[in-house]
Automatic annotation (TrEMBL):
It comes from the Bacteria. Its EC number is 5.6.2.1. Residues 184-189 are annotated as: Interaction with DNA. PANTHER family: DNA TOPOISOMERASE, DNA TOPOISOMERASE, TYPE IA, CORE. Residues 881-893 have a biased composition (Basic residues). Residues 3-134 form the Toprim domain. Keywords: DNA-binding, Isomerase, Magnesium, Metal-binding, Repeat, Topoisomerase, Zinc, Zinc-finger. It comes from Succinivibrio faecicola. Monomer. This is DNA topoisomerase 1. The record marks 33, 160-161, 164, 176, 313, 495 as: Interaction with DNA. The active site is at residue 311. Belongs to the type IA topoisomerase family.
Amino acid sequence: MGKSLVIVESPSKASIINRYLGDNYIVKASVGHIRDLASAAAQKDSKTEKKKLSKEESLALTMGVNPKNHWKANYEIMPDKHKVVAELKKLAKDADKIYLATDLDREGEAIAWHLKEVLGGKDEKYFRVKYPEITKAAIDKAFANPGKINMDLVNAQQTRRFLDRVVGFMVSPLLWKKVARGLSAGRVQSVAVELIVDKEREIKSFIPEEYWNIDAMVSNSANEQFKLSVTNKGSKKFNASNKDEAYSAVETLKSSKFTVDNIETKKGKQSPLPPFTTSTLQQAANIRLGFSVKKTMMVAQHLYEMGLITYMRTDSVNLSDEAIANARTIIENECGKNYLPEKPNYYKSKESAQEAHEAIRPSHPLDPLPANVDRDGQRLFALIKARYLASQMVAQEYETTNVSVKASDYTLKISGKHIIFDGFKRIYNLNKNEEVLLPELKVGDVLCLDEIIPSQHFTQPPARFSEATLVKELEKDGIGRPSTYASIISTIQERGYVNIVSGRFYAMRMGEIVTDRLRFSFKDLMDKNFTASMEDSLDEIADGKIDWINSLDKFYSSFEKELTEAQKPFDDGGMPENSPLEIKNFKCPECKKFNMAVQSGKTGMFLSCLGFYDKSVKKVQDRCHKTLNLRSLDISSLNKSNLTDEEEANILRSRPRCEKCHSVMDSYIIDEKHKLHLCSTPNCGGYLMETGVFDSEIEKGPEIPCEKCGSTMVLKEGRFGKYMACTNKDCGNTRKILKNGQVAPPKEDPVDLPELECKAPGAHYVLRDGASGLFLAAHNFPKVRETRPPKVLELLRFKDRISPKFHYLCDAPAYDADGNETEVRFSRKSKKQYVMSLDANGKNTSFVAFYNEDEKKWEIQESASKTSTKKTTKSSTAKKSTTKKTAGKKAAK
């Protein structure tokens, strides 16, 4: 018998499973999806070079799927997967059986189906295996009971993919036409942006109200001091809305006797939480570890592929009998029998739970964590294990005490909490300082007043979304699924619609503009209930309850009508255009004929002369093109890493309010004499022009000499952010401002190297100096997008052409000890160039060399990633480092 081929998704998973299965199996990785809906460019090149297409055919070609032809899809091998597919085809041809062992969710099922479709052969040859964890027992069980591909799950995945493709490819061009070029829309992402936009508007329309708290420091007979808070005046809640009311209460309290009126003690219990699902893990890791949702899923994926945790995409809170037994053993051994409930704790999964497998838990809870797990993996694993164990422990028992004190007609209160038995919180405690002990008190005790403390406060706007609270809101509304939250949050940031500062979401102005346009024209698409119902439909398709084509047709029928209406002019009911906002009485400083207007684009906001739209001047190039920068003073661009909710509220109170809608206004500096305040709600159009002297509010920034002409370079702000510009207009030199606020080092001019040909015919390399050091790029970039690191031999060959500041790179080792050529790389951590080598297969070797600036020599050491069990090799100079130096000189010549 021949060997069986097993295909998994990741290489790390392949190596572990290969050990479990033995020599009769060949385990290979597809590295995720191998094919996707075809791109328009690829199809045009192969099928429609000279054929004239109808509008419907052209649209279907662009999307890779045809809604008007029973959703016929055109799939193609992904560009970077041709080599993988070729290898899998060769192995599949010789294999007796092919086991598709991809992940057990919809995406995994779809990958398995695509593999089967591409590799071909008889159906009897293919088997689908699923396993909730990568352990020998789970793998053996899965391969002993293989099944077939579940086409209901595949069709649910295709439905989601087709819906997203249709919305993205049909709505985005409309946004380009009506709003600005380069914008995009997504079926689920747009609703997530809407949540953040609505929160932003709640915050900016919130009008703070003043209120005062009054606290009293008192002591008992044992001279133990504690703080009381005023809660009531008579039978009503105490409410002081200004200083006069507060100080009136203070004067009364100063002359009053403080007597303990009531002491109420209650016992309570707090039950343990269920083990983690995907969304609860994302929330807990964000709150407790500071992980983004994307990072949480990446780390969890790595732990799963190492065989350390069960599958991390799950809605289930169930645990297997074996997992419960293991948890109880650990709890009894580490905590004692009194921490174990008489019977195991069972939890009920919600009705919409996708998978029938377990909650997220350790695969081998009785074993120690391997030493090769990195710090992030250790922290996330510890969190998962703690929650898993805590779910099988007894409740925490506590006692709360509420004390009421009378002073005249005022009631003051204090609460305490005493932990009787810590229970599950011995292992999993979110709030370690929750115990508040009160001094000994009894009813009738007279307390000594030490101090009255009045304090002014203002009501706070709603809290901004963090990643944890956004995930919670998405899950509550049924928008998306936990497995998609990471991609949703990443996508809406990449599109520039929202921004995260200090872990909190801010809606960008373009995000608000796009949300308003989509809400106007696509009521179904932007309706949370409709989006949630689509997710339910996907669940029903996965369960085989409804037909996927009918579900797609139903969606497209409604969507097409809304799209057709949206494409009309605004006067006919179409989507509103993103028209410039004219600032009256602010003439263009160049033509002095037209007013300036606020333009909103994908890259930000700026002022432009309305003369650009002067149709009496027929040639566009003859119209006025004057523009002015708007430098934002808005809270979302303060970039303060420690900005608190109260500090933000104070900034909001300091901003002017729009006369039209009373929302807070965003402030922008135009120049030393003009400041513009714009309503934070784009649809409102309210603005206020302020004149005065604003030199102190303009960020002066650093001043440095220009490396090209010697003149002074000063800080400027353009459509793409801040940069340094030479004051000599004839020079025109600019330099970037890095993310850390430092001015980027000067760049050397490109060096043309026609002798170095690219892989693409007709193109050759140019040596460029970029933000990430030296690199080779095609001379006709971006037509040919070919780049690579330069080899040390190549720098040595062209040493006479490159800048002297890079000559030290020519002295680097040209070969490693095994004769592999070295190339120049850039370390983002140290911000320095170094050299490394690759073997014959193009994989990194353990050879790395760094330049010692103090000693002016190259030092060789082995890569840390390759030497987990070896010590770093002894440093030596470049002259002693290679046995190939003579050969290097010959090659250079």
